[in-house]
Amino acid sequence: MNIFRLLGDLSHLLAIIILLLKIWNSRSCAGISGRSQFLFAIVFTARYLDLFFTFISLYNTVMKIVFLATSYGTLYLMYIKFKATYDSNHDTFRIEFLILPAIALALLINEEFTVIEILWTFSIYLESVAILPQLFMVSKTGEAESITSHYLFALGSYRALYILNWIYRWFLTEKLNAIAIVAGIVQTILYCDFFYLYLTKVLKGKKLQLPA
Amino acid sequence: QYEQHEHDEL
Description:
Chain A: One of its GO terms (molecular function) is ER retention sequence binding. Chain A: InterPro entries: ER_ret_rcpt. The structure holds two protein chains of two kinds. By secondary structure, chain A is mainly alpha-helical. In chain A, 70% of the residues lie in helices and 2% in strands. Chain A contains nine helices and two strands, in the order ααααααβαααβ. Chain A has helices at 3-26, 34-47, 58-81, 96-108, 115-129, 132-141, 146-171, 178-190, 192-200, and strands at residues 143-144, 208-209. Chain A has a two-stranded antiparallel sheet. By secondary structure, chain B is low in regular secondary structure. Chain B is 0% helix and 0% strand. Chain B has no helix or strand. Chain B is elongated, with a radius of gyration of 6 Å. The model of chain B has no long low-confidence stretch (mean pLDDT 69).
């Protein structure tokens, strides 16, 4: 564990908590893409299956349980409790165009052809594009509440911090996973134009407007 | 310390 990975995990946890609080306090999931949240739940489910038979550390186990619980909790709030506020008209990104290629790629490019490794690889590929429905929805609605942009900033920062963690581990000549690194770079690049808008607009108190 | 395919990152 290093400071970059710890900050990355905490940024990820912060993003999920910001989203849960936003939905719970405003009792609304307006502007939030349920499809992206659904993809995140798939990512965590496929990746954390080893929860039950490998123990890496208490931190690792606790965080996996928290991420699984909060992602399914968010789905519950969006699709059941506050279903009436879910904006399905703007949440229309075809997620099968993300899931199917991730499955195909995981079967083709992986480190070991075992069920656990294929699922882990699938979760890495899917996570790199899982935010697209949310970014698509923000560009369709043309704007996002500031709390949603804080959520996106924390979520985008998590994998950017992981890139710093991989650089740090490279200097320590620790084992690295090329698949996770390439996918993590792609994932972070997808946030770049949002990061630009966030840093130049939202932090100056303006609304976040994505070019439609 | 980890076998080749144990993923220690979240």
